[in-house]
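Write out this protein's structure.
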Amino acid sequence: MRLASRFLTPLKISARSVQLEIKTALNAVHLDHLLSSLTEHFKPNVLESLDVQDSRPGRAEFHNYALSPLTASAFQRLRAFTGLTRLNLGSMYISITDDEVLGLISTWPQIEEFYLGTTWDWGALRFGVTFRGLGGILERCPNLRLLRVNLDTSAPHDLPVYVDHRYIGITREKVTFLGVGYAECNVVEAIGNLLGAMCPNLRQIDRACLLSLVHESDVFYDKWPKR
């Protein structure tokens, strides 16, 4: 019986880089299962780069996804891949808090590229990463170069005028690109000064493309001024 069980155990592939394209998952529950099963197929101590692309038909129709964003629980088993330097989950519809994203990112201290649900602006309210969370990510990831997270700039208690003093000394000179997801930029100077202090070599800030505009006219939607 033991021999049979071992024989039926899924073969684990020794791969440093994996690119997956999802085309058939019906909802967030199925996506959760797919992501959780990756540790059954790839050796955690070998994998360094993981890209998961959501290419399901009809994904540009917001009503198909609005009621079922992925939460932090969907990514818990990915923490087994402790050697990741690149994780791209940018095309996923995700809702995550500061504490949840910091709990995840702490698993990957060598991460250089981190993309989390920022390819599209889904046009709906959800949890995002505040400036406190952004500072925590930078603090935990000294090798970070490229970052995409949904930056929540709306929380009154977390505006730059209140939080900039907390992050004195947290500087990541390697960060050259920041994707802010659906973030608004209503206080341009304050936000710009804070981000500039945290990432002095930042060359580009991008906002997610509004899903409805992509679907209707393929026009890139960006409220953040380019510098």
